[in-house]
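Notebook B, p. 112. Complex prediction, attempt 2.
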Amino acid sequence: MAAVRTPREIFLNRVAIAAVMVVLLIMLVPIYWIGSTAFKPRNLATTIPPTVFFQPEVSPFVKLMTKRSQLRKPVEQEVYDAAPWWEKMVLDGGEKVVRTGKGKIRPSGYGQRFTNSLIVSIISTFLAVSMGTLTAYGFSRFKVKGEDDWLFFILSTRMLPPVVVAIPMYLMYRVVGLNDSHLGLIILYTAFNLSFSVWIMKGFIDEIPREYEEAALVDGYTRIQAFFKIVLPEAMTGIAATAVFCFITAWNEYAFALIMTNRRAQTAPPYIPSQVGSGLPDWTVIAAGTFLFLLPVAIFTFLLRNHLLRGMSFGAIRK
Amino acid sequence: MAQIELRNVQKFFGAVQVIKDMNLTIEDGEFVVMLGQSGCGKTTTLRAIAGLETVTSGEILIDGKEVQNEKAADRDIAFVFQSFSLYPHMTVYENIAFPLRAVGMSNSERDKAVKEVAEILRIPNLLKRRPSALSGGDMQRVAIGRALVRRPKALLMDEPIGALDAKLREEMRAEIKRLHISRGSTSVYVTHDQIEAMSLADRIVIMHDGVLQQIGAPEEVYLKPANLFVAQFVGSPVMNVADVSVSGNGGDVSVVVGKADAGFAFPQSTLGNAKAGHELSLGIRPEAVLLSHDKSDGAIEVKSTNIEPLGSHDIVDVQIGSEVLRARTESGFVSGEGQTVWVNLDPTQAHFFDRASGLSLRGHE
């Protein structure tokens, strides 16, 4: 580890670091753009050249979460003074918050869509990874008749572009009543991620020596106990990597969500762009929605980062 | 502790038969070493005893009870793998405690048992470490500890020290022997290293191509090999094997090695029922090939062709007819290649084998 490095090596190392920094900065520009726009007042969101320095405000998030309507004329001063701080921001923007007859604030659909996204993505990721791990374990450890054919069949489910099957799927879902339901999307995303999960997990489990399980078997454990106590902890790296990929796929999925759902079970991806067309396009609201939408994947990936560092190389650096 | 018995065990992998009609009884407290080349079926036999491999037919009995259809977990047998197979995500302590968790032992008892085993194996200072932070020898100590901790009926070891370097191997060999003597556990040990087998075993089981070749104490397989395979597999340097023809009748017979001009005189008794003119193979260990600088009775004049100085002794190759025999001499006895020496064979240490069947003519006493 502590090998002495020549000045040339040190120099090249610094160049490499500088290059990585440049690439990183370029990669971060869109994130910065979305993040900054989410905190801009509306009139600064579309200026040319872009505004870099501004007083950040949370009005885009307030607007994102509430149902609003356009003001024909400014509200009266007493109403303005009586309004809570966040409502003033909406009023300042020339809009008012829509309330029910009883004076309750009507929320926008975003919160529910976001929750839907969480429900569908987390459950489908869990199902895809757990079923995939078990299937991969079976293929890896036991002689399965026609193993190669089965594996190819599993892989082939990914060869068709999903959009091609969207219409038939929609018709089938409508017949069985799965359209616009959480269950429908969960089944769809699980099926879509399962082949990926089986293949990746098979690679990881193949690399776990059988002797570990055999040791557990002679130590007095059943095969299923050996699976949970030995194989699962050993496969954690692979499971983490697979889970991140499955979660990202399910979280970002747009086409099926757009076609299969419209209200009850709609996820955030089809909802966010739909706001462009309602009233004036308010890019700060879109940016706020997108910004919040980015967070779960970022947090999930961050939490699993230690596993991922090893997992991204797909087991190549396991000793 | 337990007695293990194999009855007519057969094992096929697809069309390949890896264990052929194996019959073997391992007595309570015995240390049996299964010796053979890789692929001879010794590991498969061991795994079959452990329950990691099913047998195609035949019975495996532990303490008189048939277990061939029982799961590994129910056989109460411990197994030490060549790769150690320590669970990487557990500490040494957890590794050793793992088998005890399966039987639901109380925490305090478990702790006591783990510490006791660690003490015996001299690893109490390593208990908090992860396996990846251990040396090879310590890993194997932990693996043995994990096997011993629940006092299994028998301890099976599959080349447990094969992955260690030479010096450590010698150390661990002594340690395994010490453990066996102090604990007296029925042990089955698989190796391809005949020195390990000789030094550890109460009895050696030699296998070749899935067939049991000979069972016997180390001296027995060394001094009375049942067939050519055993003769050449056990002992280092390897036993000389030469084609010989036998002539003469009555008291002494003349054994001609490699169609040489002259033969060696042997008492007929060493040849069993072999008749004159019979084509045989002679097996003779290098220490029974006697070289001398002076002509003596019955000796044949030969030339040395190669000398391997090994420090404590030399191995000298001599050409007799078309065959080369290797002789063990004191170091420096023959100074160089091409020297003329007189060679004689010790009849009491000579083995004759039927060339077709490979079986020893002595038969089995």
